[in-house]
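Team,

Forwarding the record for the chain on the shared tracking sheet. I've put the sequence and predicted structure together so nobody has to dig through attachments.
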Amino acid sequence: MRVITTATDLSRELDEARRAGHSVGLVPTMGALHAGHRSLVERAAQECDVAVVSVFVNPTQFNDRSDLERYPRDLDGDVALAEEAGASLVFAPQVEEMYPGFPDTSGTTVHVAGVTEAMEGASRPGHFDGVATVVTKLLAITGRCRAYFGEKDYQQLAVVRRLVADLRLPVDVVACATVRDPDGVALSSRNARLSSAERVSARVLHQALLAGVAAIEDGERDPERVADVMEVVLAGEPGVVVDYATVVDAATLQAPQVVAGEVRLLLAGWLGSVRLIDNLGATAPPIGPYEAEERSIRLCAGV
């Protein structure tokens, strides 16, 4: 396995691989790789002839400079994990390679409308413009490929799917299931910044999602009431400050009037100075005419 640091060298390498009939898989990361990333790399290595892992802490997706400065970095460890997982190449560019003229990043940016305004977009203004811009750059450098993203960052996955479709990029976006510790906590590079007590408190995020899913399975069709269920569970853990808890359509990320079909439950919360996100999918049967009428009556009555 080799480490490449320039876009020109990576593009040349991958063009040669494709001319030789080889398929390419890309796993975009910001480093600090853990078992969740490993699962993405392993899948890319299994499904593609050449698996590339990009390691780049993207400054334009941080709206808090201190958060950027605290973000963990361990390139040697990242390279070792990527190699063990079956990667063929690691792309580890300097910031000036991705943003010529840095720290001036006021040039071309990519904005994806429709799936970026709520949740993370509302809590982190400008975040998804940074994500969309750097992902577009990485996909342009890589060329035709399969790109692997974790469902743990579900809204980000939706943003990438939309930009690939809208820009008609020659990319197959592959969604991979969230990897969790045995206690249900989703693996995240930010978990390393949690104190031992905060790490215990972090379990409540998954517990809140499970409670929301259970409410839907028990017949709850009011998205606000499902959100309330999650917030009640989160409020029971004193160490957590809730940012948001919501239910959206799994495809459009829009808030539904009624929970029906494929939906996604998403939440975010602070544990001390660390902000964590998580999500789970749920399926509710389509709402019938009598249930719709009953709900309309309830809404009119304000109950």
